[in-house]
Write a structure and sequence with these properties.
Belongs to the cytochrome P450 family. Keywords: Heme, Iron, Metal-binding, Monooxygenase, Oxidoreductase. Helix content is 42%, strand content 8%. It is mostly helical. It has one domain: Cytochrome P450 (Cytochrome p450, Orthogonal Bundle), CATH 1.10.630. Helix 2 crosses helix 4, helix 3 runs antiparallel to helix 4 and helix 3 crosses helix 7. The longest helix is centred in the N-terminal third of the chain and has 32 residues. The chain starts with 7 loop residues before the first helix and ends with a strand.
């Protein structure tokens, strides 16, 4: 019945009680796992969405172009489905540009070098913990040009660079064996949600908005949030 279903916490507690599971898990581990789910799976997702809306509201021409693309693909329908996304090239460019400038996790998951490596005259001994600065890589002028700090989704329309860990110019989800395991789910979820937001609503900033409220100042932490909350006004699209 409905009451017999176990949720995520129930499963963790059952593993704790089951001594034959092959490994042990205590209450501290359970709390850590749940915290990781919230931080890695929830906090990063809404943070990316907030940065996307920030940049689109700061660049009305980009927002208009995105709305035109989404509404053309979904003409006559009230919502966007996953199947529609493959025809939305500019949507993907907007998301990729936001990930470049505002990776929710500025530092990737630590890696451990398995052998001695010399990288540009730097010796990295085996067993060294290495942390990659994805935020700095995304703003490297030698890679992205003199306008590397500017939000310009068009740079991705004819580019083969992708954020899925194969191109080291852009690794917001990490790369290699410790790449984010939920990258595919996170990408699709973000695409569908953002597409529906711009399809069903028209967006604008409050008249009394200040540069502080609409700017791109960042807070510090393991996840990069806006320094100040974003306030936007939505109205149903006509």
């Amino acid at each position: 019945g409905e009451g017999d279903r176990n949720d995520f916490v129930d499963v963790l507690l059952s593993i704790q009680r089951d001594k034959s599971a092959g490994f042990e898990i205590n209450r501290i581990s359970i709390k850590a796992i749940i915290l990781n789910v919230f931080v890695a799976g929830t906090d990063t997702s809404y943070t990316l969405m907030e940065w996307e809306m920030t940049e689109l509201l700061r660049h009305p021409k980009c927002l208009k172009r995105l709305q035109e693309e989404v509404r053309t693909v979904c003409k006559g329908r009230s919502s966007v489905s996953e199947d529609d996304i493959q025809d939305m090239k500019y949507l993907k460019a907007v998301i990729q540009e936001t990930l470049r400038l505002h990776p929710p996790l500025p530092l990737t998951v630590p890696h451990l070098s398995t052998q001695d490596v010399v990288l540009r005259d730097y010796r990295i001994p085996a067993g060294t913990q290495v942390v990659i600065n994805a935020w700095a890589i995304g703003r490297e002028a030698a890679t992205w040009g003199p306008d590397a700090d500017e939000f310009r989704p068009e740079r991705h329309l004819d580019s083969s660079v992708d954020f899925r860990g194969q191109d080291f110019e852009l690794i917001p989800f990490g790369a290699g064996r410790r790449i984010c395991p939920a990258i595919s789910f996170a990408a699709v979820l973000n695409e569908v949600v953002l597409a529906n937001l711009v399809h069903r609503f028209d967006w604008r900033l409050p008249v009394e908005s200040t540069e502080e409220q609409t700017g791109v100042a960042e807070s510090t932490g393991s996840v990069i949030h806006r320094m100040f909350p974003l306030y936007a006004i939505a109205s149903f699209a006509t």
